[in-house]
Amino acid sequence: MTHQSNDLTTQRLILRRLELADAPIIQRLAGAREVAEMTLLVPHPYPDDAAEPFIRSTWEKAEAGTDFTFAITRKEDHTFVGVIGLHGNATHNRAEIGYWIGVPYWGNGYATEAAKAVIAFGFETLHYNRIQAGYLTKNPASRRVQEKAGMIFEGVRRQEFLKWGVYTDHGMCAILREDYLNAKRG
Asked: Interhelix angle for 110-124 vs 177-185, to 10°?
């Protein structure tokens, strides 16, 4: 059974399942050096044939109930602005959020709004105990997204990743189920 048959909606966004028709826009937006530079897993240059296999893999993981990846689209005009995923770990009843927003759409609060919706989905539908997100410390905007979404800064792992030949520090923020429920109660 897949939980991804339903879209997640927010005030301004619809988070929906990725479609093969999204491949060209993923290629273009994720292919920007600025996006790849601020993420760990987005390659640069983005290979011409990579978007469709990526999309198909998100379907398989959703069917398996382990990972849920959404296209972030604007409600008003259905413009594709980025991708957000919730990657589960059943053993530890936790998940990790990963996301990117296309450069033309930076600074509009879309990542925060999408992260809040995915956090709610993770706690209310999937019943996780912990949801975390990492960020490269050279990308403080990503930490701000996580904190605005209700996550708490937990620390930095120094030189954890080798990105483009440079050792890179990796920050971590997280929210616990109890934090989420307390904030929701007000």
From this structure: 110
49-74 confidence digits (pLDDT tens): 999 999 999 999 999 998 999 999 99
**DSSP letter string over the chain?**
--STTSPEE-SSEEEEE--GGGHHHHHHHHTSHHHHHT-SS--SSPPTTSHHHHHHHHHHHHHHTSEEEEEEEETTT--EEEEEEEEEEGGGTEEEEEEEE-GGGTTSSHHHHHHHHHHHHHHHTS--SEEEEEEETT-HHHHHHHHHTT-EEEEEEEEEEEETTEEEEEEEEEEEHHHHHHHHH-
Query: CA of 65: how far to CAs of 46, 60, 90, 101, 111, in Å?
Result: 27, 9, 10, 24, 23
Could you report the per-residue pLDDT of 71-86, keeping only the tens digit for each? 999 999 999 999 999 9
Place of tokens 């879309």: 110
Global pTM value: 0.94
